[in-house]
Design brief:
The longest helix has 14 residues. It is globular, with a radius of gyration of 16 Å. It has a single domain, classed as Rossmann fold, CATH 3.40.50.2020. It contains seven helices and ten strands. With 200 residues, the chain is an alpha/beta fold. The strands form three sheets. It has a six-stranded mixed β-sheet, sandwiched between helices.
Length: 200
């Protein structure tokens, strides 16, 4: 993974997508209280950040035979699209797909949208891992569509207790571009340190 690209991505996240508060803490979608808040959309929809994310995630998939990537709308969509564009430019196209939150009640009544077929080997993407709920919803729906899940890649792992473990119960290989620890180190003016965010 390109260190400079990762460090620049952290800068953008701190500028646009991260807030910290000792008192009062933020209330998350899960109902949990937290001193950290990530709203990744201002980053994942930014042109520079999309390019960086696409490059980084493409590099993370370099050792795989993944042919498509996507996840639950809306969080995964910009990441999947960034990856798809970069992968085409690199000569190894990875198609993007969207997992609907609700299955359509008309037409093909599909829960997965995109140019994917049963048997395709895919990566499930998400912007943030907290409890893992949205990622797991995408995994279940993708498996129901016959897709073979190679791994999960999240932009940020909040390192909340049980989050990654909940996902690993469904897909053993779970990776993150960044962790909360790395982002907090930069927030506090520290060096990132070791860049390995893959749980062995």
């Amino acid at each position: 993974m390109d260190r400079k690209a990762k460090e620049r991505l952290i800068e953008i996240i701190l500028e646009r997508s991260f807030k910290y508060s000792d008192n009062p803490p933020f209330t998350l979608v899960s109902g949990r209280k937290s001193n950290y808040y990530f709203n990744c959309k201002p980053t994942t929809l930014d042109p520079e950040a999309m390019n960086l994310i696409g490059e980084i995630v493409f590099a993370m998939l370099a050792d795989s035979d993944v042919t498509a990537a996507g996840g639950l709308t809306l969080g995964a969509d910009p990441i999947a699209n960034a990856l798809s564009v970069i992968s085409f430019q690199k000569g190894k196209p990875i198609r993007s797909f969207i997992v609907r939150k609700d299955v359509k009640d008309h037409g093909m009544m599909s829960g997965v949208e995109g140019n994917v077929r049963p048997g395709d080997r895919v990566a499930i993407l998400d912007d943030v891992i907290t409890t893992g709920g949205s990622t797991i919803a995408a995994i279940v729906r993708a498996k129901g569509a016959g897709l073979v899940i190679d791994r999960v890649i999240a932009l940020i792992d909040r390192e909340e207790e049980g989050g990654r473990e909940n996902i690993e119960a469904h897909v053993p290989r779970v990776e993150a571009v960044l962790t909360r620890t790395e982002i907090m180190r930069r927030y506090r003016g520290e060096k990132i340190g070791a860049l390995n965010t893959v749980k062995e």
